[in-house]
Design a protein that fits this description.
By secondary structure, the protein is α+β, with helices and mostly antiparallel strands. The chain has 2 helices and 6 strands; from the N terminus they run H-E-E-E-E-E-E-H. It has a single domain, classed as Frataxin/CyaY (Metal Transport, Frataxin, Chain A, 2-Layer Sandwich). A hairpin with a 5-residue loop joins strand 2 and strand 3.
C-alpha cells in the first residue's frame, strides 16, 4: 500500500499567485492557438473563474477554490479537484497533474490533440 504525498498548505498570497499563474498560462495557450489558427477556442475570465468554449460549444471551466486551497476543472468527462502537491496541482482522486487532465479533456471535447503546459512565470 502506497501513501500519496500530502497537499502543501499555502499562504493566501502563495495560493493566489499559483492559481493566477495557472489561469494565465491557460489563457496564453488559448490565445496562441487562436493566433496560429489551431482551434477556435474562446476564453472568458472573471476573477478566479476561467471558461473555455470550444467550437462545438462545449465548455471547460476552471475555478479557484480559495477556502479549500483547490483548483477545480469541470468538463464533459466530469468534475476534477486538484491540490498543490510536490510543486504541481494534483487530482485529489488519482494524482494526475492538472495540465495533463486539462489536455485530455480539451482534446476529447475539441476533437483534436490539444496540449496545455504550465508556462514559466514572467517577472
Amino acid at each position: 500500500m502506497t501513501t500519496e504525498p500530502a497537499a502543501q498548505t499555502l499562504s493566501a498570497a502563495d495560493y493566489t499567485a499559483l492559481t493566477s499563474a495557472v489561469l494565465a498560462s491557460v489563457e496564453a495557450t488559448t490565445d496562441a492557438w487562436l493566433e496560429a489558427g489551431v482551434i477556435d477556442i474562446d476564453s472568458h475570465r472573471t476573477g478566479g473563474l476561467l471558461e473555455l468554449t470550444l467550437p462545438n460549444r462545449s465548455k471547460l471551466i476552471i475555478n479557484t477554490q480559495p477556502p479549500l486551497q483547490e483548483l477545480w476543472l469541470a468538463a464533459k468527462a466530469g468534475g476534477f479537484h486538484f491540490k498543490f502537491v510536490n510543486a504541481a496541482w494534483r487530482d485529489t482522486k488519482d494524482g494526475r497533474e492538472f495540465f495533463d487532465v486539462l489536455s485530455l479533456c480539451a482534446s476529447a471535447q475539441g476533437g483534436q490533440a490539444l496540449q496545455f503546459v504550465q508556462r514559466p512565470l514572467s517577472r
